[in-house]
Specification:
Elements: E1 5-10, E2 15-22, E3 26-34, H1 36-40, H2 47-69, E4 78-84, H3 88-105, E5 109-113, H4 114-120, E6 132-137, E7 142-147, E8 154-158, H5 164-174, H6 182-191, H7 213-228, H8 235-260, E9 265-269, H9 276-289, E10 293-294, H10 306-317
Parallel strand pairs: 1-4, 4-5, 6-9, 9-10
Antiparallel strand pairs: 1-2, 2-3, 6-7, 7-8
Helix pairs in contact: 2-3, 4-10, 5-7, 6-8, 8-9
The protein binds 5'-O-[(R)-(carboxyoxy)(hydroxy)phosphoryl]adenosine and zinc ion.
5'-O-[(R)-(carboxyoxy)(hydroxy)phosphoryl]adenosine binds at residues 13, 138-140, 165, 168-169, 180-183, 186, 270-272, 274-275, 302-303.
Length: 334
């Protein structure tokens, strides 16, 4: 039987990524051109620059992927791309490239939701068992999702203000750490020999929603007050207190959801799933509650195209293809 080889493209934010995934499991190549260095100097992603760089990198990355996999376009089964959500100018570059390829090759075309991609990144390495609770945490998303079965999503909680990764990056900037601040705060928190007690936003007792702007403001006000008094605050203590608050709220709500919904698995996904402290806390909580816990390896946590290939395979199995009149959807819902 011929393997199903999906070429997947992801350009929703600041990574130009192309992958070829076989049968939804085997990653033949996973090419990424990161624009981190470019955006670092601005302290965040500049949309205009991001889309221009995607244009410059796209054909190079595509050729690299095919060359590295020793495949030609005729060896492929389908072309997949992130349809949304994301930055419109960035999405458009990937969508246009993918449509052109599909039109030229006459291969089936598959539009994928970015968050479905983050979730199914787990299928590259794990068996998923349903029902499950997915905790999706990234620079743009903070969601608790109930998945009754494969392909079904019910958002049971989400952030009311900042996404977790966004809060990490803002606090990172306040601590004068390089962009993105997430990994740096994670490292500082792990090394810290002290902490600063910070608030936790639990919201209503039965709510699965999140709020991180108050926590972020608390950090800012501690730093500002110290500055006015001419005192210094140890950055690793701030990082430790901030990360402790984030992890406490995320893991407490995720575990409560897993129990209430009778989840047979807890799944972690998104860029912040790379966080060592969060992985550790959920590993321990899930072991105590006897709920299997899965998360992707580091390379599949932050934005990549292999996860889009994995999510597209699901649609391939259902033969649920997308028309070439598909439009990028910057605010697409799951
Ligand atoms: O999934 P992703 O690559 O892009 C979005 O779809 O948003 O996530 C990027 C986010 C950034 O905010 C970054 O700071 C955060 O993931 N991140 C981390 C860690 N590694 C990446 N946050 C906390 N700890 C980490 N180790
Ligand atoms: Zn993402």
């Amino acid at each position: 039987k011929q393997p199903v080889r999906i070429l997947a493209i992801e350009t929703s934010c600041d990574e130009t990524a192309v992958a070829i995934v076989e049968d939804g499991k085997h990653v033949l190549v996973n090419q990424i051109s990161s624009q981190m260095k470019t955006h670092e100097q601005y302290g965040g992603v500049v949309p205009e620059i991001a889309s221009r760089q995607h244009v410059e990198s796209m054909t190079i990355i595509l050729e690299e992927a095919l060359q590295k996999a020793k495949l030609s376009l005729t060896d492929l089964s389908a072309i997949a791309v992130t349809k949304g959500p994301g930055l419109v100018g960035s999405l458009l570059v990937g969508v246009t490239a993918a449509k052109s390829l599909a039109a030229a090759t006459q291969l089936p075309f598959i539009g994928v939701h970015h968050i479905a991609g983050h979730i199914y990144a787990n299928e590259l390495e794990h068996e998923l068992t349903y029902p499950l609770i997915a905790l999706v945490v990234s620079g743009g998303h903070t969601e608790l999702i109930y998945m009754k079965e494969r392909g079904s999503f019910e958002i049971i909680g989400q952030t009311r203000d900042d996404a977790v990764g966004e809060a990490y990056d803002k606090v990172g900037r306040a601590l004068q750490l390089p962009y993105p601040g997430g990994p740096h705060i994670d490292r500082l928190a792990m090394e810290a020999d002290g902490t600063i007690e910070l608030p936790r936003a639990w919201l209503e007792p039965d709510s699965y929603d999140f709020s991180f702007s108050g926590l972020k403001s608390a950090v800012m006000s501690i730093l500002n007050q110290a500055k006015m008094k001419g005192q210094t605050v140890e950055p690793s203590h701030v990082a430790h207190g901030f990360q402790a608050s984030v992890i406490d709220v995320l893991s407490t709500k995720a575990m409560r959801a897993a129990e209430q919904y009778g989840a047979r698995q807890l799944l972690l996904a998104g860029g912040v799933a790379a966080n060592q402290g969060l992985r550790q806390a959920l590993t321990e909580a899930c072991a105590a509650a006897n709920i299997p816990f899965v998360y992707p390896s580091m390379a599949y946590c932050t934005d990549n195209a292999a996860m889009i290939g994995a999510a597209a395979f699901l649609k391939w199995e259902q033969q649920a293809f997308t028309g070439l009149d598909m439009k990028a959807e910057p605010l697409m819902s799951l």
